[in-house]
Design goal:
By secondary structure, the chain is of the alpha/beta class. It contains 13 helices and twelve strands. The structure holds (2R)-2,3-dihydroxypropanoic acid. (2R)-2,3-dihydroxypropanoic acid binds next to loops.
Length: 329
């Protein structure tokens, strides 16, 4: 009998087709994610789950999935998965690293340029008929070229942002729990502790996973350390920033602006006061949203799932200890 796979949203067809060659595939057809009840009903008979970052996969969900052998997450971030719980139950977990690095770095850079040069405000200014003449003081922004960039997190995406920033002659510093000394000379970037990163950067761009250390790292205390002229960019996970503290810091002029691809929660509520500020730019978690990248993510997620259900080691395995246990190593 063919194994069953539940896909929690219509990912690009290329990935679905790959899965259909091997398994009986059910795809959640709506634009909005499946409710908890629908997720439970989809997963209850499944051998494999292809999940999105909008699906919380925790112990209580796994309780109703006795056959489940693999969760293939269609994202590089996997804070939506309870990895310890999956590992404990011998269920493989995978993600999609690498294929979205450059696309995400492009968006981080786009947000930095847009916030610094007030692109959204400028476009609305013209559309709303306010443009009367060239003005010496009209919509002045900040220079990117030569400015100081602080990268909070220096994994694949942070490094890809640094390569872009090098072309803009930005002076770069980074903080990461893992120091990358071999890249420091090549990219012209210096390692510093977080407090110094915050205190000396004109732009701070977040490229860290969400975990106990990073959750709400950007809070009142962090904003107090930052330059009043600094702009904060986040393409990682919304909960790394305490949004209430961010609003307060912006309101009190302790920070010049913020450009956010991710919020907490998502979607950002219409009533969120951050949306009333001209110096805040929010886009709807689109950092990896190019046609080519989403196709690559679909192929990678499908390959991981196929390998796992065929008893092979998935290429992007997050909990190798499950595989070792299965092999009796
Ligand atoms: C990820 O992959 O973690 C991004 O946030 C969405 O592509």
């Amino acid at each position: 009998m063919k194994q069953r796979v539940f896909v929690t949203r219509a990912i690009p067809e290329v990935g679905i087709k790959m899965l259909q060659e091997h398994f009986v595939v059910a795809v959640w057809p709506e634009i909005l994610p499946p409710s908890r009840e629908c997720l439970i009903s989809g997963i209850s008979a499944a051998d494999g789950l292809l999940s999105l970052l909008t699906d919380k996969v925790d112990g209580s969900l796994l309780d109703v999935a006795p056959n489940l052998r693999i969760v293939s997450n269609y994202a590089v971030g996997f804070d939506n998965l309870d990895l310890a719980e999956l590992t404990k139950r011998g269920i493989l977990a995978t993600n999609t690293p690498g294929v979205l690095t450059e696309t995400t770095a492009d968006l981080a850079f786009t947000l930095m340029l847009s916030a610094a040069r007030r692109i959204v405000e400028s476009a609305s200014f013209v559309k709303n008929g306010h443009w009367q003449t060239w003005g010496p003081e009209l919509l002045l922004g900040q220079d990117i070229y030569g400015a100081r960039l602080g990268l909070f997190g220096f994994g694949r995406i942070g490094q890809a942002v640094a390569r872009r920033a090098k072309g803009f002659a930005m002076r770069m510093r980074y903080f990461d729990v893992v120091r990358q000394e071999h890249l420091e000379e090549e990219l012209g970037i210096e390692y510093v502790e977080p407090a110094e990163l915050l205190a000396t950067s004109d732009f701070v761009s977040i490229h860290a996973p969400l975990n106990d250390f990073t959750r709400h790292f950007f809070d009142r205390e962090a904003f107090t350390l930052m330059k009043k002229t600094a702009i904060l960019i986040n393409t990682a996970r919304g909960a790394i920033i305490n949004e209430k503290d961010l609003y307060q810091a912006l309101g009190e002029g302790r920070l010049a602006g913020a450009a956010l691809d991710v919020t907490d929660p998502e979607p950002m509520e219409k009533e969120n006061p951050l949306l009333t500020l001209d110096n805040v730019l929010v886009v709807p978690h689109i950092a990896s949203a190019s046609h080519a990248t989403r196709n690559r993510m679909a192929v990678m997620a499908a390959k991981n799932l196929i390998a796992g259900l065929q008893g092979q080691e998935p290429p992007n395995l997050l909990n190798p200890e499950v595989m070792s246990r299965q092999r009796g190593i």
